[in-house]
Structures are given as C-alpha cells and as structure tokens.
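Kindly inspect this chain:
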Amino acid sequence: MSAGSKPTGTVHPGSLALLAREGIATDGYHSKSWDALTVTPDVVITVCSNAAGEVCPAYLGPVMRTHWGVEDPAHVTGTGAEIDAAFVKAYGILRTRIEAFFALTDEQRQVNLQAELDRIGEIA
C-alpha cells in the first residue's frame, strides 16, 4: 500500500511514464491519503526526504516505523531530461531497498526487523 499525509490528488505523469517503461502496470493507481487505507499496516516506511519530520498517523496497535528518505522527483525543476533523471534515480534507490527487504532471511526478520529496515534505509 502507498499513501501520503498530503496527497496531491493525481499521480505524477513522470512516475507513470517510468513505471510503464519498466513494464509495471499502473491501472488503478491514484493519489490517496493514509486516511483512505482500509487496513492498519504492520510497518510504515516514509520515503520522501521531508516525510521524516511530518506528523504520522496514530495507528491502533503496534506499528513499526522506519524512514527511507529519497528526494521527491515531483519537486524537481529543469529540462525534461533532468526531471526524468530524478524519477529514474528515485526509482533505482527504492527498487534497490525493496529488493534488499525481500532478500532478508527469516532469521534477519525475526532477530531484529527494525534494525534491518533502518539499515536498508541507508542503502543508496
């Protein structure tokens, strides 16, 4: 699931174009608030560079939190190539981190998932 504290109401065209080039379907993707989530997550990962300081929702029950800060390419200005490069960079960082998360062994997840999530957030 993906949601934000202040959604814009639209998915950035640069995001959609990059995902299409990567062969990732985007049908049904939309900008949404965390208030729209239908379930309480087990883990909350903030990703935008300014999200670490934002107020997080008060989820009921235990919720693990970590921050994987990445510069938000939606705020980049410049030529089309410069903006596209910012989306490619953010995508690459997040993909690497997500792959590292899925590569965790059962032992790594069971011993200290919080430490592993925080470590993954440092991967460039």
